[in-house]
Design a protein that fits this description.
Elements (H helix, E strand, L loop, with lengths): L1 E5 L6 H12 L3 E5 L4 E3 L8 E3 L2 E3 L4 E4 L6 H13 L3 E2 L3 H8 L1 H10 L7 E4 L5 H7 L5 E5 L8 E4 L2 H13 L4 E5 L7 E8 L2 E9 L14 E4 L4 H14 L3 E9 L2 E8 L5 H7 L3 H12 L12
Parallel strand pairs: 1-2, 1-6, 6-7
Antiparallel strand pairs: 3-4, 4-5, 8-11, 9-10, 9-11, 12-13, 12-15, 13-14, 15-16
Helix pairs in contact: 1-9, 2-3
Length: 301
């Protein structure tokens, strides 16, 4: 198969591993910088152009689109879909998962466990907003934040009010969530491919930090999931419409609660923690499911 990997840097671990895994299985792998792609939108024959020529004859595309370029990256991916190329994750599913509020609303509607969450822009009554989620301590998140950026733990009512006032001054949309203290600074990343959790790790925040992101000094170890956690992860990925997803969950006193469904989960941490060849499993999924013209949305989402 001829497979494109949409990535801005071929040296990134995840991109490099996908290229290696695809080549090892005999596929023709190409790294394409989606920001350097351009398209003729009005054409009766949709195409993606790159470095002066049309990209043709691709069977599948693996999107590794950063959160900061979601709009343009998904536009390029959608153009590939319109030409019939099979996307590992579809553009509409990526856009859906990247919208934190929309994704939480969809998960809530389908009965997925989540922390009690409030959403606001410029609330007239901060006390009532905090009361909605049970009061301090609370976690306050900028909607546009990623990888722990724009996430604050407010341990007291006064601290929460100060953070909300600051976010209001930024003219920003934000979430206020209950703090799951029993998680003790750890979360679970379940890696879903298709309808199966293929690997899972427990991420532990470093001392004095509540965010467990590995790039912030957190550590990762392999973890055994409960049947409920596996079901929650698979259902969450399916609700988002994602074939491949990293589902981040906390272990609360009332069961697993989903924090985020990541449409471009990194491979380095999960492969190192579990010893599994996740890149190979992704390529095998494309082999089994990637067919020309096999997209649900046909680029219309």
């Amino acid at each position: 198969m001829k497979i494109a990997v949409l990535s801005r840097n071929r040296r990134l671990y995840s991109t490099r591993r996908l290229i290696e895994a695809g080549a090892a299985r005999g596929h023709d792998m190409h790294v394409i910088d989606h920001l350097r792609c351009y398209m003729n939108i009005a054409s009766h024959k949709p195409a993606v152009h790159y470095k002066g020529k049309a990209l043709e004859d691709f069977d599948a595309v693996i999107p590794r689109i950063g959160a900061s370029v979601t709009f343009y990256g998904t536009a390029v991916l959608r153009q590939f879909e319109m030409t019939g190329v099979f996307p590992l994750n579809e553009s509409v599913a990526i856009s859906r998962s990247r919208d934190k509020l929309r994704s939480l609303q969809l998960l809530s509607r389908r009965g997925i466990g989540m922390p009690v969450t409030g959403f606001a822009h410029s609330p007239d009554d901060t006390d009532d907003l905090l009361a909605l989620v049970g009061g301090a301590p609370v976690v306050i998140k900028l909607i546009e934040g990623t990888q722990g950026v724009g996430v604050v733990l407010a341990e007291t009512q006064q601290a929460a009010e100060s953070v909300i006032d600051a976010f209001r001054g930024l003219n920003a949309n934000f979430l206020v969530q209950e703090f799951i203290g029993e998680a003790r600074g750890s979360d679970i990343r379940a890696f879903v491919i298709g309808n199966k959790v293929v690997a899972a790790m427990r991420r532990q925040a470093k001392e004095g930090e509540f965010r467990s992101n590995l790039h912030r000094g957190g550590s990762a170890t392999v973890v055994k999931l409960t049947p409920e956690e596996r079901s929650t992860a698979v259902r969450s990925a399916r609700i988002m419409g994602l074939n491949v997803a990293g589902v981040d969950m906390l272990r609360s006193n009332h069961g697993p609660v989903v924090m985020e469904v990541n449409s471009s989960p990194g491979l380095e941490g999960i492969e190192a923690a579990t010893g599994k060849d996740i890149a190979d499993l992704i390529v095998r999924f494309i082999e089994n499911h990637g067919r020309f013209g096999k997209t649900r949305t046909k680029g219309s989402g």
